[in-house]
Amino acid sequence: MKQLSEIKRAKKTNKKSTSDQSDGGLVVIPYVGGLSEATERIFRKYGISTAVKPYKTLRNLLVHTKDKRTIGQTGECVYKIPCHNFSSTYIGETGRSYAKRQEEHRKEVESISNRTLTRADRKDLAAETNKSAITDHVAKENHLIDWSGAKILDREGHRRTRQLKESIRISLRKEANCMNRDAGAYNLPTTYDRILVTRSSSTSCDHMRYMNMIIVSNPT
Domain range holding 11? Predict the structure, then answer.
């Protein structure tokens, strides 16, 4: 009941505050006290209207997945692969099984790591751009990859939404030794930059989970 009253109050505030804004579209956001209001203010600056919905639903409380897949069997996902020597991490996405994608990564990395290289060879390899940023990292830093430390970050069947989630994950790690060469396949609007900054003040729920709920509520 308390959450419903807060949602109603948020809706009234939203209608009043967006009446003078230009029509920049509508974004549906889950209501999380303190975080949703901040998110609304950011969208409002860009002339984007917002509508709130309950964060917890009866389905969320009652439905639980029963069968768990292994990381290798998991497909249509966003994943991360860490470096064994340093805190660097690679973030990627695939529509196939993770095992198949990792096999491709490892094959390219091993084509370098299994060779006996001179300093001149390594210098030449470091100057090259490989298919994967993981291989670039190994060639330039002479590091090992912690394949067993890989994790699935998100599961998403919709390709464009999966790419968006990948870009958000990369953005959240761009200041923390991210191996990725670019920001991902999806070009994040500047609006998201402002929302991502609020992650440090998020105490009601995991920030990435909240971002995912916004994405699911507003499919591309």
Answer: 1-64+189-220
